[in-house]
Amino acid sequence: MAEATSKNLQQFYGTLFDIDIFDLIQFFSSFKYSALISLYFDDLNKHGQIFILKGEAYNAVFEELNGERAFVEMLLAKTGRFNVDPITSLPTKNINKPTMNLLLEIAKKKDEMQIEKISKESQNISETITPDLSIKELINFSELLEVGAKFIAIGDYINAELALKLAYIINPSNKKLCEDLTMLQSKINRHITVDGFKGKREW
Fold first, then answer.
1. Which of 6, 10, 77, 158 shows the smallest number of beta carbons within 10 Å?
2. Bridge-partner residues for 38, per DSSP?
3. What is the pLDDT of residues 47-74, one digit of tens each?
4. Could you give the angle at the alpha carbon of 26 between the alpha carbons of 106 and 195, nearest 5°?
5. Is the distance from CB of 90 to CB of 4 less than 8 angstroms?
């Protein structure tokens, strides 16, 4: 075991609902902090540890996994709790990739998982609508609002915007609908990426 000598953080704890462990490690990396992060995934009955030394991921263990694979798997978790403690001693180094490279890899995996989730949920919603239904047959104000709300709930703002635009054609004086469309326009302009480019959309 090697001794740790760098800026150690004071002990604190939290849940992955309060703060994403990805964001926490990115913060530690930016300010060159050292810390021992213990992670507990109660729903899986699993736990692991990550040692951060001077802002760089140094060692990770997650059940039978070690090193970079353990680091990536833990940072992809959505639920759990964590403790952050000062480092008193270090195990053998088992992470060689730069932390920022690992974080970019994890961010890409998270995006892929989110896209897959939205795609599946959008397909499930779409399957509730008769495939050969014509636009005229579909033009039902309350149904369009319901479909739009479902797409908003899963974060599929493009399809939500389409459903609410159709509803707007039917009832342009609906104040709440106008507010929802304005909100969707803002979300799309800020967050939706098409083929790698952010695009401004008008309605």
1. 10
2. 49, 83
3. 999 999 999 999 999 999 999 999 999 9
4. 45
5. yes
- Residues ≥6 apart with Cβ < 8 Å to 177: 145, 164, 167, 168, 171
Token duo for residue 127: 């399957």
Of residues 57, 73, 62, 70, the one with CA closest to residue 109: 73
Residue 106 confidence (pLDDT) above 80 = yes
Enter the tokens of residue 201: 């959309």
Better-predicted residue by pLDDT, 187 or 135: 187
Mean pLDDT computed over 13-27: 87
Relative orientation angle of helices 141-153 and 99-126, to the nearest 10 degrees: 160
pTM over 0.90: no
Domains of the chain: 12-101 (no CATH), 128-198 (1.25.40)
Helices (H), the chain: 21-30, 67-75, 99-126, 135-138, 141-153, 157-170, 175-191
User: In 3D, which of 151, 59, 73, 53 has the Cα closest to residue 113?
Assistant: 73
pLDDT category, 185, cuts 50, 70, 90? low
For residues 50 and 95, what is the distance between their CA atoms, to the nearest angstrom?
10
Dihedral of the CA atoms 130, 136, 142, 146 (nearest 10)?
A: 40
Q: List C-alpha distances in Å: 25 to 11, 75, 98, 100, 102.
A: 15, 9, 13, 10, 11
